[in-house]
Specification:
By secondary structure, the chain is of the alpha/beta class. It has helices at 3-20, 26-31, 59-69, 86-94, 104-111, 127-136, 151-164, 178-188, 230-234, 260-269, 271-276, 384-390, 404-412, 422-441, 458-463; strands at 49-54, 73-79, 100-101, 117-120, 140-143, 168-170, 195-202, 284-291, 301-308, 317-323, 360-365, 369-372, 380-382, 445-448, 453-454.
Length: 479
């Protein structure tokens, strides 16, 4: 693209974005003007990372606060498609003088030279274009899990990180807590070895569990909130009329926008096993059980089998994933109580309620069985008698030098390496991409790990790439 054409496109985007603001209240128009903040006015500009934040409500807002609390970040820009929604106002009140935008493209056009790193706390399907543009501009990126909605988008994000030599971190925060360091140490010291099966489970109530699984179409459109830029919210996705059940976390319910329970919780449950057992990509994914399957949103319950081949001296391994309120897996004798870890964030929009089996995993090896929760929860050996016998043999586990957010910012400053970079988080996310395809199509998938192609289903293989992006959004797949 010539510099003249690039400038013209930039001008058109800015004109369209600013023109759209005329329909908004005056206070919002002022708030989204995006006036540049001189670097000289940024407190500790030489010591802190200048951070722009895309998606500032709900989980996005929590990410911003967590990064800010490290004392290592200057929040220099806030971007959200709905700056007038209740869930964004908390962050706006916290940072009243920070420039605000409704379109990430305009934000980069106006403030690119002042931004060093970016957070992406938006819906799953919109991670890709924001992340690709940020990396292409040399910005470090913290993106929520899962990395992206399609297998190919994750592939491009991994290649982009390598091409642009930027720091990346996926937001599975347990990767910087006790579970990470314990699992790593126990594998290195031979405590966890010869694993042949893992049960991963998340049986909390999900947003779509009260819906009619016999749905035959997308919901009818509703009036777009006057403060929302719905066209930008859609990004690469094909047009859908606005509906409240697409936004504020509800996007996770739909195949077009989200990754369901697997994409939401898989990275908090399977992540350390996937990395330290060198699992890579599965050769088979089988939807063993799907209750309430339909082509629009996720099943009421799913049991998915992921089969991984022998890796070096490690034997073949099968992960069986269970979600759904009543789809609770069997547990081994001597399992004991299913503790509710107070450090685990709530599922969906409510509190985690004590259940027969709380989110977590059971790991079966040749000699030992381990049970664990999600996020940073550490493993224990079961039954209790075996745990007592093993206690003197267990190695010391190092403490984490930084939490997940400080780890990212310190890596941006060249002082640490991120523990969940795209090179690690990408293949894990692609496991979920394949699992969601098996859910959506309700069919077993055979996958060639070398060619990264599905060999037994042409439609599924095409969906590794997904439907073509909406007109005007093709460029992000070429960066």
């Amino acid at each position: 693209m010539s510099s003249r054409e690039s400038s013209r496109r930039t001008f058109l985007r800015q004109s369209l974005a600013l023109g759209a603001l005329t329909a908004f209240p005056a206070i919002l128009t002022k708030a989204v003007s995006g006036a540049e903040m001189p670097l000289s006015q940024l407190a500790g500009a030489g010591e802190r990372v200048n951070l722009a934040c895309c998606g500032i409500g709900n989980r996005g807002g929590e990410i911003i606060q967590a990064l800010y609390n490290t004392g290592l970040a200057n929040i220099v820009a806030l971007c959200d498609v709905d700056m007038g929604a209740p869930h964004t106002l908390k962050v706006l009140e916290k940072f009243p003088d920070v420039p605000r935008f409704q379109d990430f493209r305009v934000m980069f056009d106006k403030m690119g030279s002042q931004i060093e790193a970016v957070t992406v706390g938006t819906p799953d399907f919109s991670h890709f274009p924001i992340t690709m543009l940020a990396m292409s501009l040399g910005k470090h990126v913290y993106v929520e899990k899962p990395m992206a909605r399609t297998f190919n988008e994750v592939e491009l994000m991994m290649k982009g990180a390598e091409k642009y030599k930027v720091v990346t971190q996926m937001g599975n925060q347990g990767h910087s807590e006790g579970n990470y360091f314990q699992f790593k140490t126990w594998v290195e010291k031979g405590i966890i070895k010869d694993v042949t099966a893992i049960t991963a489970h998340m049986n909390g109530n999900r947003r779509w569990h009260g819906w009619d699984p016999k749905i035959t179409k997308f919901p009818d459109g509703q009036p777009i909130p006057e403060t929302m830029d719905w066209d930008t919210w859609l990004m690469t996705a094909h047009h859908h009329d606005y509906h409240k059940d697409y936004v504020n976390g509800q996007w996770r319910c739909w195949y077009d926008f989200g990754m369901g329970a697997l994409g939401d919780w898989g990275a908090h449950i399977m992540d350390t096993a996937h990395q330290f057992l060198d699992l890579g990509l599965p050769y088979e994914v089988d939807p063993v059980k799907l209750d309430g399957h339909n082509p629009f949103f996720f099943p009421m319950a799913s049991t998915l089998s992921f089969k991984f081949p022998k890796r070096g001296k490690m034997p073949p391994l099968e992960i069986t994933w269970y979600d759904g309120v009543k789809n609770v897996p069997a547990v081994p004798e001597g399992y004991g109580a299913s503790e509710l870890d107070p450090n685990i964030p709530p599922a969906s929009n409510g509190k985690i309620q004590p259940a027969k089996l709380n989110p977590g995993k059971i790991i079966y090896s040749k000699d030992l069985i381990f049970k664990g929760g999600s996020h940073g929860s550490t493993l224990s050996i079961i039954p209790e008698e075996k745990a007592k016998d093993m206690e003197p043999k267990l190695p010391e586990v190092p403490k984490s030098p930084s939490n997940h957010y400080a780890n990212f910012l310190l890596a941006c400053k060249g002082q640490e390496e991120t523990r969940s970079p795209f090179s690690v988080a990408g293949p894990l996310s692609q496991v979920f991409n394949l699992g969601v395809l098996a859910q959506q199509l309700n069919t077993k998938l055979l996958f060639d790990r070398k060619t990264k192609q599905i060999t037994n289903n042409k439609v599924a293989n095409q969906l590794l790439v997904g439907t073509p992006p909406r007109k005007g959004w093709e460029q992000y797949y070429k960066l």
